[in-house]
Design brief:
Number of helices: 11
CATH superfamily of the domain at 96-236: Aldolase class I
Distance between the termini: 26 Å
Oligomer: single chain
Number of strands: 8
Helix content: 40-55%
Bound molecules: SN-glycerol-3-phosphate
CATH architecture of the domain at 96-236: Alpha-Beta Barrel
Shape: globular
CATH topology of the domain at 96-236: TIM Barrel
CATH class of the domain at 96-236: Alpha Beta
Strand content: 5-15%
Amino acid sequence: MLYTVAMNLNTLWTPLILVNFKAYTQAMGKKALELANMAESVSAETDVCIGLAPQYTDIQQLAQKSSLPIFAQHVDPIWPGSFTGHILPQAVKEAGVVGTLINHSERRLKLAEIDATVKMTRDMQLASVVCTNNAKVSASAAALRPDFIAIEPPELIGTGTPVSQAKPEIIIKTETLVKQINPEVIILCGAGITKGDDVTAALRLGTKGVLVASGIVKAKEPKKVLLDFAQAATTV
Ligand code: G3P
């Protein structure tokens, strides 16, 4: 199914489980496709939207072989031209992405760059998922009118200590500030999410989904974990 940003993202894609493959070799090449096929079967079984953010080199194969929404992990706010080593939004869109992460804590940007990238993704009908590290940064990001904000305290990333249970106050504060500035923004949370209860807690706090990485990509049984996430998302 062709996902277009013009459709109502809230209806189409939430609750959303967005899996960030980062630069993990467990989610690269053939293994990226295996993870995508697994995620597709979980999405079909539970009717929960699962998005994937693979490495650039795997975008095309996943977009062609999977019906799940595929996201870039970053794009540069550039138009075609002499930009060696940059990631052209038009190129990843043609490769099949429907959106992109922006300002992930492992790919931090200046405010002006976030602004330019959100504007460009809007112009190109790509969904923008701006990653933030605290409530005030989330409020600033909301003013730039992204489609999604993913609040992720960097100190919890990869720890298995879930933001939704360890730092619920940061999510609540983010929602309060963001809704004051731009009630249209869809709020996700991430960092340390490793089990269904963490997803339940995130949704009960009012977010519309989670951004996860190691809890799925580095799991001994990724399908079992993702199914636990998805089933939790259907019971809130
Ligand atoms: O993009 C999501 C990521 O930063 C969260 O990492 O490994 O704690 O799920 P992890």
